[in-house]
Each structure stands twice: as C-alpha cells, then as structure tokens.
Specification:
By secondary structure, the protein is of the alpha/beta class. It has helices at residues 20-25, 44-50, 63-66, 78-90, 110-124, 138-145, 162-165, 175-190, 203-212, 233-237, 254-270, and strands at 36-40, 56-59, 96-100, 128-130, 151-156, 195-199, 217-220, 228-231. The chain has an eight-stranded parallel β-barrel, surrounded by five helices. The structure holds 3-methyl-2-oxobutanoic acid.
Length: 290
Amino acid sequence: MSTIAQVGTSGSMPSRRMTVRDIAARKSAGRTAEPIVCLTAYTAPMARFMDKHVDLLLVGDSVGMVVYGMETTLGVTLDMMIEHGKAVVRGSTHACVIVDMPFGSYQASPAEAFKACARVMAETGCAGIKLEGGREMAETVHFLTSRGIPVMGHVGLTPQSVNQLGGYRARGRTNAEADDIVADAAAIASAGAFSVVVEGTVEPVARSITGVIDVPTIGIGASPACDGQILVAEDILGLFGTFTPKFVKRYAELGEAVSEAVARYAADVRARRFPGPEQVFGAGTKGKRG
Ligand code: KIV
C-alpha cells in the first residue's frame, strides 16, 4: 500500500491513503476533536463502497463468523486473513487498512508473532496489524513495534478468549476487573501500539481508558467518549443474522433487500420474463461482457 497521494476524497479527508501516524496524530493534543471512523471489511467490493467514508478499515477475524458461518473466531487461519487482507487493500485507496491476527498466530512468543505479522504485512500491503490481549501481550507489542510493525491493541471483551471469559458478556463490572482492563490498555499503549480497540466494557471503563492513554481508543460496545468507533459493517447494514447486539445501530436492512430482489429474479425466471430481449445477444450485436 502506498502512502503517496492516490485519490481525491470528499469533505475534510486527506487526498491520500490514511496512515497509522494520521490515526495516532488525531489524539496528539489530548481528546480527539473529530472521532475516528472505522468499520470492518473483508472483501474488495465492500471496501470500495466504504473506503471514502471511513478513516480505517479493519479486516477483522470476525470474518470467520460473518462470512464463513463459524460459531467463534477461533477457526480463522493466517491464510484466510491474508487473502481477505489483500482483497480489502485492493478495494481501497483512502482508508488505513489494518489486518487482525488470528488466534494461535501470535500468542506463543514475540518471535513467532513477528514471523506471522511480517507475512501479513508483506503479502497484503496493509498498514498494520491488530492483536488481542493486555499486559501479557505487552512484550510482544514492544517487539513488533520496535521492528517496524504497527500494532493496534484490543482489550476488554476479547473474542479469541471467549472460552476463558465464559461468553460474550460486557466486562469491567467489578472494580477489580475494571482496574485490570485499564491496566491492560495502558500496558499495550506504553508498549508502542498506535491505537487500542476497547470492546464490550461498561461505559465508565472505556471512558477512563480514553482519559488515561495517549493513543486513540476505538470503541465497540464501549463509550461515546472513545476517540473513534468501530462496528462490523454487516451488522449496521442488516446483512448478518437475526441477532443484533445492543451496541449495534442498524443503518440499513440490506439482507431484506437481497431477499426481495432474489425473489423477483426467481419469479421472472420461472415466468420466462428473464432474460428479456435486452439481455440476449442477437446475431451481429456486441455485448459489454463476454
Ligand atoms: O474482528 C473484528 O471484527 C474485530 C472488531 C469488530 C473490533 O475485532
């Protein structure tokens, strides 16, 4: 991915691709004036639709659940993340693209993490990686960031630890748990992360992390006080499942639109209304495709 000027975009957005430094710099003078807009993306066409509206596209390991129908994110592999990362980089020219490191690819040791992250960076062209974890991952975050790999942290409800956490409940309800999450975020930020995702915490915990660390917090089920917000794109578009988590706001019902459009297509085919004269090649005509 090039940091050289590439395309013009609307509004106050720069006319080149956003970098991790641009994201971090939003908080350079205390509270982020303009919140950082982030969404997940897994494919080139979706990246293309969202690119000019957002600051950051995260190729989340939620791809396992949203695209592949997995129960959790634990089955996602490095190869899957690399292919989806490549697609999102190809489909975007403006947003900073960050790729999630999948479960098992970075926890064993800083050196193992470096190898996996270096593959993701080299093969996808993304701007950085995201990994889950708190104080136990600080050494790895330092190892990576001091070797040229920008890291986005992820604390609070960390889905790769769903078995350890016993479910997807909001975290930080006791003082001890709240203190732990704040300490986790502080450790990851001090280790060199350029921003930290705070997921599924009670609101005051995310608010206090945002006040304590000097890199941007990106909230999901967290707090309006966070320096930015992220959601799974399919959740806000009505393209994923029937269950909408409390922290999601629906901006469209595209799943229903897909179903309705397919029903009309099916009815046309069954009634021999499709293809019509405009959709067939007459002798001597040249089609757009094929
Ligand atoms: O995998 C993912 O999509 C994520 C976020 C939504 C933060 O980690």
